[in-house]
C-alpha cells in the first residue's frame, strides 16, 4: 500500500510523517501552508476600531 500524507507545516505533523515513513511505504507528503489575510492581522488601528465599536456601539 502506498501512502500520501496531507499535513500542515507544524513540527508535530513532521514527526508524524517520519513515524509513518519508518513503518509504511510513504511515497509523498503534501504540506498545506495557509496565508494570513491582511484584514486578519492585528494592527493598532484594527484593535482600536474594534474596541471603540464595542464600547460605543455595543457590538
Structure write-up:
It is a single chain. With 59 residues, the chain is α+β, with helices and mostly antiparallel strands. It has one domain (2-57). 46% of the residues lie in helices and 25% in strands. The chain is built from two helices and two strands. The protein has helices at 11-23, 44-57; strands spanning 2-8, 25-32. It has a two-stranded parallel ribbon. Strand 1, helix 1 (11-23) and strand 2 (25-32) form a beta-alpha-beta unit. It is rod-shaped and about 60 Å long.
Short description:
The protein has 59 residues and is of the alpha+beta class. The chain contains two helices and two strands; from the N terminus they run E-H-E-H.
Largest sheet: 2 strands, parallel
- How many domains? The number is 1
Number of strands: 2
Mean pLDDT: 84
Supply the helix-strand structural class. alpha+beta
Q: Which strand order spans the largest sheet, edge to edge or round the barrel? A: 1-2
Shape: rod-shaped
Distance between the termini: 54 Å
**Over all CA atoms, what is the radius of gyration?**
21 Å
**Number of helical elements:** 2
Can you give the helix content as a percent range? 40-55%
Query: How large is the share of residues in beta strands?
Result: 25-35%
Low-confidence stretches: none
How are the elements arranged and paired?
Elements: E1 2-8, H1 11-23, E2 25-32, H2 44-57
Parallel strand pairs: 1-2
Amino acid at each position: 500500500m502506498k501512502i500520501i500524507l496531507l499535513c500542515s507545516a507544524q513540527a508535530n505533523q513532521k514527526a508524524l510523517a517520519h513515524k509513518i515513513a519508518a513503518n509504511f511505504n510513504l511515497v509523498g507528503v503534501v504540506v498545506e501552508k495557509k496565508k494570513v489575510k491582511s484584514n486578519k492581522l492585528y494592527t493598532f488601528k484594527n484593535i482600536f476600531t474594534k474596541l471603540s465599536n464595542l464600547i460605543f456601539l455595543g457590538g
